[in-house]
């Protein structure tokens, strides 16, 4: 098969799965009105899948900081920090993240995806083992591939399976990096961190926790699952992203291991890409303050979560295992998922459609994410739309 | 050694049957993806079952080179013998 034939095969698969005339995976957004509303075509829609957990994309503090950084430092850094230097904003944000976690060091990356690539491939290499949850995000899988380490998966959140695999490794468990997520991006469930920490200690392994979806969402100051469980000192490395609760783009890794700093010299996804723009860094610094102080935002977020989760549960939809800002509706077939997704869009609600193989276990999902700034009227509207669509989806 | 390998192949075929059409013909040369329609999700689930059966972990890296039933059986046998 030629290179281009392979892409034609992709087009054919897409065509068979998706209806004509709707670009499900590239929906054009014409105008953005706020953190929760935009225009698609000629209609005003509600965002219910954008991971904007605290609704900070239009926070006045963040907008002002970004404007001022553009005016004083320009639109871009035009290169890597290794070659073009570290701006004061990069260094300040790293200090602020380290302080936020009460940790020794932090490195900031250009995206959350690269934070995982850089951290995993910088820590593990040929001859080492990475032991990852089966439901891990693509950035974790790709980071593992880049590392050259042996990649072993354990069944999602299954501690018996994790232990079995650690035992099978024998002495190699000491050069093993276990990787889990605070809140899993697709089904919204938490990792059983206390049990994972016990196992990693018993087998002498190293633990990396990706807090992409739990930063700003869990814990009193929003550190994530480490704060909710009080286990921050037991986790070796934490990665996360600016693109969800912080409303920007970029990623980070924090750790109490002073060796973290050496990643700057060995990690290709840090070295060979341009550093985050001044505006991105400035808005993220402002957002991190708001996130830290955002106790009320978190309370409102969880109120919205419980309201929507229990409404959907009452309606009989099959949901992810526990309420969280990621609420996944699990459908038997891609067609049902597509019907529900399209039905919601017709009601002015824009969510994520996840089809196999992207969803765990070959299932299809309609994935919603709830924000602290969704109003109770908006949540009511969402509930009514799901009530109406129940019949159509399962007809 | 040889009987070990036969044992692996037999058990593998037994698990495979549950992942394919009832009338599928399975031989050592059968291509998992093209002839048995075992997609990437099914393959990972199949591997999980096999891992339990033989008490081994199959690294994802090694799976990339596997196309036929025989190649998968060889891989399992190799990992099992190295334990
Ligand atoms: C668990 C997890 N890790 C990492 C990432 C990558 O983050 P980003 O999209 O900010 O690059 C994502 C999200 O896309 C994610 O869900």
CATH superfamily of chain B: ACP-like
- Strand order, largest beta sheet of chain A: 4-10-9-8-7-5-6
| Count of individual helical segments of chain A | 15
Work out the oligomeric state of the chains in this entry.
Answer: heterodimer
For the record, the CATH architecture of the largest domain in chain A stands as 3-Layer(aba) Sandwich
Task: Write the CATH fold name of chain B.
Answer: Non-ribosomal Peptide Synthetase Peptidyl Carrier Protein, Chain A
Q: Give the termini distance of chain A in whole angstroms.
A: 40 Å
CATH topology of the largest domain in chain A: Aspartate Aminotransferase, domain 2
- The whole-number mean of residue pLDDT values of chain A reads 96
CATH class identity of chain B: Mainly Alpha
User: Which CATH-level-2 architecture of chain B?
Assistant: Orthogonal Bundle
DSSP strand (E) fraction of chain B?
A: under 5%
In terms of structural class, how would the helical and strand content of chain A be classed? Answer: alpha/beta
Characterise the protein shown here.
The complex is a heterodimer of chains A (395) and B (83). Chain A is an alpha/beta fold and 395 residues long. Chain A is 43% helix and 16% strand. Chain A has a 7-stranded mixed sheet with strand order 4-10-9-8-7-5-6, sandwiched between helices. In chain A, strands 1-2-3-12 form a 4-stranded mixed sheet. A 3-stranded antiparallel sheet of chain A has the order 11-14-13. In chain A, a hairpin with a 4-residue loop joins strand 1 and strand 2. Chain A is globular and about 55 Å long. Chain A starts with a helix and ends with a helix. With 83 residues, chain B is mostly helical. Chain B has one domain: ACP-like (Non-ribosomal Peptide Synthetase Peptidyl Carrier Protein, Chain A), CATH 1.10.1200.10. In chain B, helix 1 crosses helix 4. The model of chain B has no long low-confidence stretch (mean pLDDT 88). Classes of the chains: A alpha/beta (395), B mainly alpha (83). Chains A and B meet through strand 6 and helix 7 of A and helix 2 of B. Pyridoxal-5'-phosphate (PLP) binds next to helix 5 of chain A.
